[in-house]
Write a structure and sequence with these properties.
Blueprint (H helix, E strand, L loop, with lengths): L29 H21 L3 E3 L4 E3 L1 H33 L1
């Protein structure tokens, strides 16, 4: 019997995983997601409606570029929080259906 006549080893379709298997304790992310969405929307609306970007220059009011930048950053951060909250909420809904 030669080397060429030896049977080839069988290959597994799914190789065994050597990573530790953890049982995940699902946290309910829906309330956290709703809270982040509401907080983010409130922050964005607060910066959009309430934050005043004008300064008094004696005769009239002019827009301050620094304050405009702060307003833009606040709206962006608020919308980012709202998006993260919506992703958490959607993930909680999907996990709930499983």
């Amino acid at each position: 019997m030669s080397i060429l006549d030896e049977p080839t080893p069988k290959r597994h379709s799914n190789p065994p995983s050597h990573a530790p298997q953890y049982k995940s304790e699902a946290t309910d992310s829906k309330p956290i997601g709703i809270a982040l969405m509401l907080f983010g929307i409130c922050v964005a609306l607060g910066y959009f409606i309430i934050y005043d970007t004008s300064v008094d220059s004696g005769d009239s009011k002019v827009n301050n570029f620094g304050k405009l930048n702060n307003q833009s950053n606040g709206i962006t951060i608020g919308m980012g929080l709202a998006i993260v909250g919506s992703v958490l909420y959607a993930g909680g809904r999907i996990e709930e259906k499983r």
